[in-house]
Write a structure and sequence with these properties.
About 30% of the residues lie in helices and about 25% in strands. It contains ten helices and 20 strands.
Length: about 375
C-alpha cells in the first residue's frame, strides 16, 4: 500500500533539521560551558618557564644575578644554561574545570594527573608546598657541594632536621634542629646517604638514628614506613637540609620555584662561573635532574614538559638524567637534542664535547635504549 503526500515535504524537513541542529549545538555549548564551572579531581602539568643560571632574574624591583659567587674569581660565559620547570594548574584547594581537563588530555605537551596522585592524602597543600621549598633549598646546597667537589675545593657538611611531618614515623622523636650524625651505625653527611640507609633498613625493624641535640648526643629509634604516591619507598617522615661550611659564598636567587630538580643546572652554572674556560661556547643548553654532593644525577618528573619548555626558550641541547631515558625516547620535540647523563662529570663532558660531534649515549644502552633513538649528530 503506497502513501502519497500532496506537497513536497523537503522544505519542512530541512527547517526541522536546522532547528534540531541548532538545538543540539546549543545543548552541546551549554554542556561545555557547564563543564568549565564544575571542578574535576585532576591537576594539569604544563611546560613552565626557564631560567638561565648564567644570567639574571628579577627579585621584586631589583635585577640580580641568579647565581652570585663571592670570595672566588668568576668568569663570563658566552652561552646559556637553562634550568627548566613545570607549571601545575590546580591543587586540592582549587581544582581545574572539566573543560580544561579535556583539553589537557588531547594536548601532548600537557599531562592530566589525578589529584590524589599529585597530592597524596594525609599531606596538606601547605605541607606539600613547604616540603618543595625545603627541597629546593637543599638542592641548591647539594649543587654547590657537587660543583666545589668537581673543582677540587674542600668543604665540610652536616645534616639538620628541618621538620618532622605530622603523623609521620618521626613525629615527636626527631626534632627541628637535630643534627643527624649517623643512622644504623653509619655516618651521615649528605641527604643521599641518609636516603640510602633508610631504603636499606626497610619497614620491618626500627632503625637507630644518632643526633646531636642541644650539645648532647642522643640515640632515637624510628620505624620507617612506606611513602605514599607513585613511587613507594621506605621513609621516616622528616625534612632534612644539608648545612655546609663552604669556603666560597654562593647565593642563588630564585623565587616561586620548588623541588629538587634544578640541582644539575645549578651545579653546571656554578662550575661554569668558576671555570676560566668558556664551556658553553655560545650555545644554549637546558636540562633537569636532581644532584647530590657526590655529583650523582637522579631522575625527575615532568621531563616531557621541560623539554618543550626548553625548546620554546631557544635551547638546542638538553641534559636528561639517564634514569629518565624511558620517559624521553619517542617524546623529544623536533629541534632539540638530548644528552643523557648520570653524573656531573658526564654533563660537563657533554657540554664541552658533544656539540663538536662526539656522541655520548652509552649511559642509555644500559637501560636498553638504542643510542640513535635519543639524538642524531
Amino acid at each position: 500500500m503506497a502513501i502519497f503526500e500532496t506537497g513536497d515535504p523537503s522544505d519542512q524537513v530541512q527547517r526541522r533539521s536546522r532547528v534540531a541542529g541548532w538545538l543540539m549545538l546549543a545543548f552541546t555549548a551549554a554542556i561545555i560551558v557547564g563543564l568549565s564551572f564544575f571542578p574535576a579531581p585532576y591537576v594539569i602539568d604544563n611546560p613552565g618557564p626557564t631560567y638561565d643560571t648564567l644570567g639574571s632574574v628579577s627579585v621584586g624591583d631589583e635585577e640580580m644575578e641568579l647565581i652570585l659567587i663571592v670570595g672566588e674569581e668568576t668568569f663570563e660565559a658566552t652561552g646559556s644554561l637553562l634550568l627548566t620547570t613545570v607549571t601545575r594548574s590546580g591543587n586540592p584547594e582549587s581544582l581545574p574545570g572539566w573543560f580544561d581537563v579535556l583539553q589537557g588530555w588531547f594536548d601532548p605537551t600537557r599531562t592530566v594527573i589525578p589529584v590524589d596522585v599529585a597530592y597524596p592524602p594525609g599531606i596538606s597543600f601547605e605541607q606539600n608546598r613547604e616540603a618543595a621549598t625545603i627541597e629546593m633549598e637543599t638542592s641548591q646546597q647539594e649543587a654547590v657541594a657537587a660543583a666545589l667537589d668537581y673543582l677540587g675545593i674542600a668543604y665540610t657538611s652536616r645534616m639538620v632536621v628541618s621538620q618532622a611531618m605530622e603523623g609521620g614515623p618521626s613525629e615527636g622523636v626527631l626534632l627541628p634542629g637535630d643534627v643527624i650524625v649517623s643512622a644504623n651505625g653509619m655516618a651521615v653527611d649528605t641527604v643521599s646517604v641518609l636516603r640510602g640507609i633508610i631504603a636499606d633498613s626497610g619497614v620491618v625493624s626500627p632503625m637507630t638514628i644518632t643526633v646531636e641535640r642541644e650539645g648532647s648526643v642522643v640515640d632515637v629509634s624510628v620505624l620507617p614506613r612506606m611513602s605514599e604516591g607513585q613511587e613507594r619507598v621506605p621513609m621516616v617522615g622528616i625534612l632534612v637540609s644539608g648545612t655546609y661550611d663552604f669556603p666560597v659564598d654562593v647565593d642563588i636567587a630564585l623565587d616561586n620555584v620548588g623541588g629538587p630538580s634544578a640541582g644539575l643546572m645549578f651545579a653546571l652554572g656554578i662550575v661554569e662561573k668558576l671555570s676560566p674556560a668558556d664551556i658553553t661556547q655560545g650555545k644554549v643548553f637546558a636540562g633537569t635532574g636532581t644532584i647530590d654532593a657526590q655529583g650523582s644525577i637522579g631522575p625527575i618528573g615532568g621531563i616531557r614538559h621541560k623539554m618543550h619548555g626548553a625548546l620554546n626558550d631557544g635551547a638546542t641541547w638538553f641534559f636528561a638524567p639517564a634514569d629518565n631515558c624511558p620517559d624521553v625516547v619517542g617524546h623529544i620535540p623536533d629541534g632539540l637534542q638530548v644528552i643523557p647523563v648520570a653524573t656531573l662529570e658526564e654533563a660537563m663532558d657533554g657540554a664541552g664535547e658533544h656539540p663538536r660531534g662526539r656522541t655520548r649515549c652509552r649511559v642509555c644502552r644500559f637501560v636498553g635504549i638504542p643510542p640513535a633513538s635519543l639524538f642524531v649528530d
